[in-house]
């Protein structure tokens, strides 16, 4: 940086203070004021919103999106009262876990009044999402609002228009009531930035909410939102959904609009990054996908596949054919911690008891998959990200250093080297398709990660989610049970680890600290089987009564 530019640069701390002051001002603008959150918080805060908010706010915000939409469409609730309740609960969630970059009360309540006026005049909703508040991950553009992607140097980046996904959802009647935190570089399974600090897990502040959609994960878990928009290039929707005990879906690439959201690798197709939903209910994921795809977004964004949302039937009752589910117990690199294995075993048994065929699904070269995808994440060797960090003088977060500076696969690639890794990607995709064909399963059940929500700055094993990003397979994370330290014990006979990463992961297991945390799993389907994956999980959920009590 030239000396003159260096002299003109504002201290990053000053910009961070401005960011936090602005966020706090949006919360302070709520009328009546939001109840003050106690300064001395317990580790677990999931029950606190209902002790701070009034009964009307609680009655509305505990409803899942499908019930809220029914109540709004029937006129039992107004858009204004629903929006006000979620604004207030989001403000409380921010005070508890630091998950919000700003509330949008003026924008949201003005839109709510417009929708209520429409409903009064026409006696019907304006669209399928009429009056539903939706939270938005901060890097998704909303006209006139900042879009930092977690970098201090991007503080003055103002979106010139609404992202395509925002336009589609607004057209369906949605209301955007708040924006959620993201990490520096957008490439952490943690949500921490110098602009806003660390977003903690509602179940235990000593562990992470996940990343990079960790603000959404924590916010939705605390019901400051019932449906939010996240993004996923290596696990960034499924990981926080799993950590926070909610539902999260990574769709196949180019089914959901991609125009108008900030991301360092935007435009590069080395690893496709996707937008997708996080929700308090499984139905919420399907509602989001159907509404967006029913709008035919490919008519204005030609990169998208012109593929309507399909009504998929699954199960022997509907199709005359048994479901066949494959189970990946571990990826031959890292064994999951005891509660993940227990959740897999319990689900395996219950699926069999429900008459569903369940088979082992041997992992196919999952260690090679990480070598390929981590080589393709930063074909510029991380230069652009390093410039974005260093240009403001902000410090590097530990996981930014880990993924860019300490990752042996991150190198500046020549044209020939990039072509090599793209060929490796396509060869691996073909080999995996043949592997799946041999096993003939409808979907694969597997871990979301090598453990439950880990302690801060320790989430360094992405392979259980990034595997499916490399293949571009859709996957849904869903809650199954909770950690129970009395039964979740590390087996004594595991003398030798599968790998160095496995040994590292074993050291992270802490039954005392993790006791009571959500335990989630992941269901994965083949490319473009988005509808099928969600339908299978809905069927399974009903058959075996997930999550387990």
TrEMBL record:
It catalyses: a monocarboxylic acid amide + H2O = a monocarboxylate + NH4(+). Pfam families: Amidase. The active site is at residues 137, 212, 236. Its EC number is 3.5.1.4. InterPro entries: Amidase_CS, Amidase_dom, AS_sf. Residues 81-534 form the Amidase domain. Transmembrane segments: none annotated. Substrate binds at residues 186, 212, 233-236. Keywords: Hydrolase. GO terms for molecular function: amidase activity. It is an enzyme of class 3 (hydrolase). Belongs to the amidase family. This is amidase. The lineage of its organism: Eukaryota, Fungi, Dikarya, Ascomycota, Pezizomycotina.
């Amino acid at each position: 940086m030239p000396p003159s530019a260096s002299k003109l640069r504002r201290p990053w701390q000053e910009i961070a203070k401005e960011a936090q002051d602005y966020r706090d001002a949006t919360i302070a603008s709520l009328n009546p004021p939001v109840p003050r959150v106690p300064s001395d918080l317990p580790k677990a805060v999931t029950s606190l919103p209902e002790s701070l908010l009034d009964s009307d706010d609680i009655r509305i915000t505990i409803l899942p999106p499908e019930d809220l939409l029914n109540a709004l469409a029937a006129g039992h609730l107004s858009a204004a009262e629903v929006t006000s309740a979620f604004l207030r609960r989001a403000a409380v969630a921010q005070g508890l876990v630091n998950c919000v970059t700003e509330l949008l009360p003026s924008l949201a309540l003005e839109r709510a009044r417009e929708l209520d006026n429409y409903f009064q005049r026409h006696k019907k909703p304006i669209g399928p999402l009429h009056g539903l508040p939706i939270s938005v991950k901060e890097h998704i553009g909303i006209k006139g609002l900042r879009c930092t992607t977690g970098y201090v140097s991007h503080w003055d980046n103002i979106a010139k228009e609404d992202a395509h996904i925002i336009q589609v959802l607004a057209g369906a009647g949605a209301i955007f009531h708040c924006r959620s935190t993201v990490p520096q570089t957008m490439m952490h399974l943690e949500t921490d930035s110098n602009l806003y600090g660390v977003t903690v897990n509602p179940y235990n502040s000593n562990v992470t909410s996940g990343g990079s959609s960790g603000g959404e994960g924590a916010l939705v878990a605390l019901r400051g939102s019932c449906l939010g928009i996240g993004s996923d290039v290596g696990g960034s929707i499924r990981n926080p959904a799993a950590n926070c005990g909610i539902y999260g879906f990574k769709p196949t690439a180019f089914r959901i609009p991609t125009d108008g959201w900030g991301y360092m690798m935007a435009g590069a197709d080395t690893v496709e990054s996707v937008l997708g939903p996080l929700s308090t209910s499984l139905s919420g994921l399907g509602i989001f996908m159907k509404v967006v795809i029913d709008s035919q977004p490919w008519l204005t964004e030609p990169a998208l596949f012109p593929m309507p949302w399909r009504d998929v039937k699954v199960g022997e009752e509907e199709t005359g054919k048994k479901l066949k589910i494959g189970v990946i117990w571990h990826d031959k690199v890292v064994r999951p911690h005891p509660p993940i294995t227990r959740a897999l075993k319990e689900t395996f048994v219950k699926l069999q008891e429900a008459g569903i065929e369940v088979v082992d699904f041997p992992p196919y070269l999952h260690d090679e998959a990480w070598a390929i995808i981590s080589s393709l994440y930063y074909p510029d060797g991380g230069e652009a990200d390093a410039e974005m960090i260093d240009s403001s003088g902000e410090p590097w977060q530990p996981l930014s250093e880990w993924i860019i500076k300490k990752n042996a696969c991150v190198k500046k690639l020549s044209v020939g080297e990039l072509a090599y890794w793209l060929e490796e990607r396509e060869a691996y995709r073909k080999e995996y398709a043949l592997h799946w064909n041999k096993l003939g399963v409808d979907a694969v059940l597997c871990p979301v990660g090598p453990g439950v929500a880990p302690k801060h700055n320790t989430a360094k094993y992405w392979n259980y989610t990034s595997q499916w990003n490399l293949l571009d397979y859709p996957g849904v994370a869903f809650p199954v049970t909770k950690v129970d330290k009395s039964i979740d014990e590390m087996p004594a006979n595991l003398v030798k680890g599968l790998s160095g990463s496995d040994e590292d992961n074993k050291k992270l297991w802490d039954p005392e600290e993790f006791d009571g945390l959500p335990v989630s799993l992941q269901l994965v389907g083949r490319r473009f089987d988005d509808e099928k994956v969600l339908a299978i999980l809905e069927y399974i959920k009903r058959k075996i009564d997930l999550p387990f009590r």
